[in-house]
Amino acid sequence: MADAVRGLVAGLSVVFWCFATWLIPVLVAMGWWRHYLRGIPLTYEATLWSIIFPLGMYSVAGMYLGRADHLPIVEWIGATWLWVAVTAWVVVTVAMLRHIVLTVVARPKAP
After folding, report:
1. Transmembrane segments in this chain: where (predicted)?
2. pLDDT interval class at 110 (50, 70, 90)
């Protein structure tokens, strides 16, 4: 049974990976629109983690899809995006720690 659907699953995986790749410029454009054109300041929000997780999943999925379907360009794109995901994770982690220090730790105690 697995051999019978292997081609279908491989093809659909590539289609969904291509769709995810197509969404990246859309997400960048939406961020540009929100923070540059609308003027909303780029500050730490817990919702930033909902961007970080898909970045990591996209990169790992790309690496494994490239290996499984023998698509070296897809594997290379996944490995490259892994560094983008790690960088974004570090930036958001630092912003979160800064936010915690400024709002929780440095907050003056009530008398």
Report:
1. 6-30, 42-61, 81-106
2. low
